[in-house]
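Lab notebook: predicted structure, single chain.

Context: the supervisor wants predicted structures on file for every construct in the current expression panel, including those that have not yet been purified. This is the next one on the list. No modifications to the sequence; it matches the entry in the shared construct table.
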Amino acid sequence: MVRGRSTERRAEIIRATLEVIAERGYRGASLSAVAERVGLSQQGLLHYFPTKEALLVAVLAERDQWDTGGGSRSDGGWRIELLASLVEYNAMRPGIVQTFSALLGESVTEGHPAREFFTRRYTQVRSSMAAILRAEYGERLPGGLSPERAAPLLVAVLDGLQYQWLLDPDSVDMPAAFGDFLALLQPPEQSTAKNPQS
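Prediction complete. Output recorded below exactly as produced.
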């Protein structure tokens, strides 16, 4: 019973953190702001999440669960079109994208509390992207790469676009740019058919 209540409370704190991030951005998502939102003292909040990084990692893990419908779809159940929809969705929630990008940047330092989360996440994401590419193109992409070799490049495009968009959203149309990248993956004849002006 106590564990169930604790799980509910943690879920409530994560939801509140998402709300605060949406309203105030990454920097404004202080522990005190979240604690106030859920009716706890900051010390009470630390009982559930010992650091701000631990809380934000939990938020990102929850976001991944929602985005993938309950887990990383390495079974090939996703399609390329769904990735494009996810990019459009992310363009509507700059606060959570900012949180992801800021924590990701910080996590490359040795001993950072989010490092293990991102290392594990990228292993899963590369596997999922390879499965998506295999479902779309088979064992070879039009340019000759295997899905496994192309997967890190796809992930780099997704995350790199997020950084560029966060820095200059008026100049970088993230969904359109991702659509352009997907056009590059098509065989030449299909690419010309989809972009007759080129």
